[in-house]
């Protein structure tokens, strides 16, 4: 299955915030959307899934496995979300329901899409918690989000997104709120799960160093427009746009240096 975004536009209260964005994610590919805050990368992801805020309207084309998603009724989109397309949000504290146990939240999509019983769904939740390396999964599925650390909450969010084995995962800055050590662990986990399941990946970030660890190709956005699209190796060694050059300077100002691209 493949994702094709063509001339995507998003208007919010009459103001154009995404202007002609196009990119493709072939089956099994790992593509990054990168740009500074306000560049439109997260809005692009929300438009793909039909999750734009009130007052926003999308145009252009978003095709998933040949099916047009722009204008698709929400009931049909809801069948795709979590089943064929999963999403991991930036801040799991707000993405997770504070009054539901972790296990119930992991199991929710499989109960909806696969029709599992409550007992079967709990067993599945434990298995998924184990798969994302949550400690003592049988106990942790009975806990609430506030009882988990930030890294554990993000692992739970990943388990929720992948429980139905979607063919595409959209990860919207999933490591931004984590410290460097936990960030690295989450990136390694996500990459291994994507590779194991043969999923396609759209990874959203403002950090070229992070993107180099998980994606093979990058699409650079500024003010809602694509300013450069190239393999990650090219973005790291020969960026053509001033925006990408600035992102590279920011990345090399850390302990990270170009090289070792997957």
From TrEMBL:
Its main location: membrane. It is found in: Cell membrane. Residues 3-248 form the ABC transporter domain. One of its GO terms (molecular function) is ATP binding. It is a peripheral membrane protein. Pfam families: ABC_tran. CDD domains: ABC_NikE_OppD_transporters. Coiled coil: none annotated. It comes from the Bacteria. SMART domains: AAA. Keywords: ATP-binding, Cell membrane, Membrane, Nucleotide-binding, Transport. PROSITE patterns: ABC_TRANSPORTER_1 (PS00211), ABC_TRANSPORTER_2 (PS50893). Belongs to the ABC transporter superfamily. PANTHER family: DIPEPTIDE TRANSPORT ATP-BINDING PROTEIN DPPD, OLIGOPEPTIDE TRANSPORT ATP-BINDING PROTEIN APPD. This is ATP-binding cassette domain-containing protein. The lineage of its organism: Bacteria, Bacillati, Actinomycetota, Actinomycetes, Micrococcales.
